[in-house]
Design brief:
This protein is an alpha/beta fold. The chain contains 12 helices and 10 strands. The strands form 2 sheets. Strands 6-7-8-3-9-10 form a 6-stranded mixed β-sheet, with helices on both faces. Strands 2-1-4-5 form a 4-stranded antiparallel β-sheet, with helices on one face. The structure holds adenosine-5'-diphosphate (ADP) and magnesium ion.
Length: 278
């Protein structure tokens, strides 16, 4: 983000408007996930400050904001990945399927099958391509045809054609972009409802990143995608809704992506997206 002019020319919602034509208009779908008065602390440090937002189903919602503003923390609250961090404390609700995921009777492992996650650095297991994708199916005791589901998942992740003749070779032998698509296949194999992605293209070259962007657009026909990105052009290209977090874990503005990038309500948001800070 060096200057306002290049940002303005790059942040266009044309691609988004075209590519999302086949999805119903916003407002005609239900809510997949809702945060209600969510606060998150690491020890005494507050990382998320009273965030309330409803995330539409079968849409791409982008979370943007400067480094350290709580984007990853917020994402990890949704499938309780923060449970793994000893000093992390969550207050407030995250509703999924009409239930607060922080209630005592929610099984976090079952929750994570319904809300899969993909990370910044592709992290395939040191296993075959097939076993990587089948991993979650085995844990859940999948009773269907595993090979069939592996194929479907690899197809849905736009990787099948590249790997169909080498399913027994190690996932680690693939290129970075292929590894990330493998991780996406692994996340969607158990047929989740929501896929969380934390800067999934930032470790990839532009061509590999662009393939993942195309894939995300396809995924939103079937899944709710919630993606953290520090790349504002990417948010403008691929998301339907954008949430802008600023320092201190405050959700400053949340709206249709076109509105956020073309005519935000908040001066702080305008300053951020035009590169004045952050
Ligand atoms: N595991 C952790 N332990 C302690 N503090 C953390 C941990 N993870 C994140 N934080 C702090 O929480 C705040 C938000 O971090 P994070 O959610 O990673 O932001 P972002 O993803 O927007 O860069 C930062 O101040 C960060 O230092
Ligand atoms: Mg982060």
């Amino acid at each position: 983000m060096s200057n306002t002019t290049s940002d303005d020319s790059l942040i266009t919602t044309e691609v988004q408007a075209d590519s999302n034509d086949d999805r119903a208009p916003l407002g005609e779908t239900g809510t997949a996930v809702a945060a209600r008065n969510l606060d998150v602390y690491y020890g005494d440090e507050q990382a998320i400050d009273d965030v309330t937002m409803e995330i539409p189903e079968k849409r791409v919602t982008a979370l943007i904001g400067p480094s350290g503003c709580g984007k990853s923390t917020f994402l990890r609250c949704i499938n309780r990945m923060n449970d793994m961090i000893e000093i992390c404390r969550v207050e407030g609700d995250v509703e999924f399927g009409g239930k607060n995921v922080y209630e005592d009777d929610v099984d976090p492992v079952a929750l994570r099958r319904k809300i899969g996650m993909v990370f910044q650095k592709p992290n395939p297991f040191p296993k075959s391509i097939r076993d990587n994708v089948a991993y979650g199916l085995k844990i859940q005791g999948y009773e269907g045809d595993v090979d069939e589901r592996v194929e479907e998942s690899l197809k849905a992740a736009a990787l099948w054609d590249e790997v169909k003749d080498q399913l027994d070779s190690s996932g680690l032998e693939l290129s970075g972009g292929q590894q990330q698509r493998l991780c996406i296949a692994r996340a969607i194999a158990p047929d989740p409802e929501v896929v969380l992605m934390d800067e999934p293209t930032s470790a990839l070259d532009p061509v590999a990143a662009s393939k993942i962007e195309d894939l995300i657009d396809d995924l939103a026909e079937e899944y709710t995608v919630i993606i953290v990105t520090h790349n504002m052009q990417q948010a403008a290209r691929i998301s339907d809704r954008t949430a802008v977090f600023l320092t201190g874990g405050e959700l400053v503005e949340y709206d249709d992506t076109a509105k956020i990038f073309e005519d935000p309500e908040e001066q702080r948001v305008e300053d951020y997206i035009t590169g004045k800070f952050g």
